[in-house]
Write a structure and sequence with these properties.
Elements (H helix, E strand, L loop, with lengths): L2 E3 L3 E7 L4 E7 L4 E5 L2 E4 L2 E3 L5 H4 L15 H15 L4 H14 L10 E5 L6 H10 L4 E5 L4 H11 L2 E5 L11 H8 L7 E7 L2 E7 L5 E5 L6 H4 L2 E5 L16 H19 L16 H11 L5 H22 L3 H14 L7 H8 L11 H10 L5 E4 L2 E4 L3 H11 L27 H4 L48 E3 L4 E3 L9
Parallel strand pairs: 7-12, 7-13, 8-9, 9-12
Antiparallel strand pairs: 1-2, 2-3, 3-4, 5-6, 10-11, 14-15, 16-17
Amino acid sequence: MGLYRTDEALYELGFDGIFSYFICYDFKARRWRKVIEIPIKEDLIFVPLCDDLIRRKVVHLPSAPEPYGGEQDLLLLVRDFVHRHVAVSEFYERLATYYVLFSWLYDRFNTLPYLRALGDYGTGKSRFLQTIGAICYRPVFASGATTVSPIFRIIDMHQGTLIVDEADFKNSDSDAEIIKILCCGYQDGFPVIRSEPRGNTFQPIAYNVYGPKLIATRNPFTDKALESRCLTEEMDFQWRPNIPHILPDTFWSDALEIRNRLLQWRFDKYQEVRLRPGLINESIEPRLNQVMMPLASIIDDETMLQDLREFAERYNKNIVTERGMLFEAEILQSIVDLAKDGTREPSVKQVTEHLNRDRKEKDEIKPHKVGRRIGDKLKLRKTNRRGVYHLIWDGPKVKKLCERYGVLTDGVDFGGLEDFGDFYREPSAKSTGDDHGDRPGGDAGGQGGGEDFPDPSHSKSTKSTSLHPAPERCNGCSHFDQRWASCKKAERRIRDVDLCPLR
């Protein structure tokens, strides 16, 4: 057992280099003490965890809380430690400082971002992880060579900060298990489920993978959902002369001292920290707000809050720009351009022709590919008219898609969705005289209204077995003033007047 809390106290795991123990902090008395067990029930006692990961310093723990002065003193101490051992941009240095503090209170929030160093070998990614990770909450150091199986178990067991070096996994896409863990781990309440042997059977077990994470990669992740959860620093050989090439002997002892002070800060802030909804930024996407707001909620410096807001807006702009380079953005731009010219419900063929205007013949896109992307990726509805698929115009949705993909929309009228309810409305079994009174085939008095189609011109030719009478015999039919009609003679239902075989 590594972490336990009640309404009256918080129990943290400590390690002095030989033994592990609980550090119990009483919220009311504002005092702490060491204990070696926590009685839960008469037959249940929690004992401190002391596994091989702790003894071999894969997981780093504090030893005891220490005074830190004021919060500004603690921020300066953390930032100085980062500045002395790794070279990053001035803003990211401040961001990393607050992220370290945030990691010590992450369990007070439901979502969080990841820190990520991106760059080629020799740019300082490993030093980035070592320095910042050493003072985060319960750092767990792993590498890209670590398999999936122990990772989710370690996160669940220690509930700390996962630090993964060389995280360029072989299959860094949405199908890779490690990517699934990283994608789920940004939000509380989405555990990894595994089937574990229990005697002669297997039992499903839930592992909690929620927690802060520091990642180093050479290339961006293929999975864009994971990319959007990372606050990335591009490492570009910013090595300063005063940064040691080899970590000094005092590095880990200095890191332990800072962890001890951060533990006292955690005890002091644990009950009072809350998510601040007023920090929401409407100019960025909801997912980015999800991961930014918890981090911003621990920041009291208005200058840093403004810098973080501008960073989020630049980050959001980059995401939109990258989306704008996708094939879906080209399709959406063609739909918008056709709408500007008055074609608000173009056919898939029209959209394809617009896309192929400036393409060479060998590079032309096929309509079936465009149709699939419209439905599968853009999620826009289509309807079949006389065997040709047309887009159903949904103004509000198209507008949101344009914002998401960065598509220009000047001069477009985003009217609401056209009402297609009549397409799915069941027709009455018999039409009334009132229904036919003003139709070409009926009279105002209702004569002929007792039948569906009193006009004898609808009768089928005796020389033909076809159910489709000649179109010229159906001009001016009395039943075509409704969009949905039942054609008795043809023994089929017509959903769209344009598709009727009698026209």
